[in-house]
Amino acid sequence: MKYSGDTISKPVVGREAEALSQAIKTGGYLANEEAWATIHRITEQIKKEKSNAQK
Predict the structure, then answer these.
(1) Burial of 14 (0-12, 13-18, 19+ CB in 10 A)
(2) Residue 25 and residue 18 in contact, taking contact as beta carbons nearer than 8 Å
(3) Is the full-model pTM beyond 0.70?
(4) Which of 3, 16, 44, 45 is least surrounded by Cβ atoms within 10 Å, i.e. has the fewest?
(5) Distance between CA 15 and CA 22 in Å, rounded?
(6) How many CA atoms lie within 13 A of 8 on its CB side?
(7) What is the mean pLDDT of the segment spanning 1-7?
(8) Mind spelling out the 3-state secondary structure of 33-48?
(9) pLDDT tens digits for 15-52?
(10) What is the rounded CA–CA span in Å between residue 41 and residue 33?
(11) Alpha carbon distance 14, 18 (integer Å)
């Protein structure tokens, strides 16, 4: 599948390559701070919705 958006591909090297390789081998993942902030916002919203539904 091709992505039609504007992207810049760069090779993954050094520590990033090692971390990515380890995540793949162990079934893990990598996430940056922006991703963690999004995850936190979503989980907080879900908690609020569940709390409001129980009232």
Answers:
(1) exposed
(2) no
(3) no
(4) 3
(5) 10
(6) 0
(7) 59
(8) HHHHHHHHHHHHHHHH
(9) 888 988 898 999 988 888 888 888 899 999 999 999 88
(10) 12
(11) 6
Cα 50 from chain centre = 23
Q: Which two tokens stand for residue 12?
A: 């993954």
Q: Which residue has the tokens 């079934």?
A: 27
Q: Are 20 and 30 in contact (CB under 8 A)?
A: yes
pLDDT tens-digit readout, 5-17:
666 777 778 888 8
CB neighbour list of residue 29: distance below 8 Å, 6 or more residues apart? 23
- pLDDT for 7 equals 63
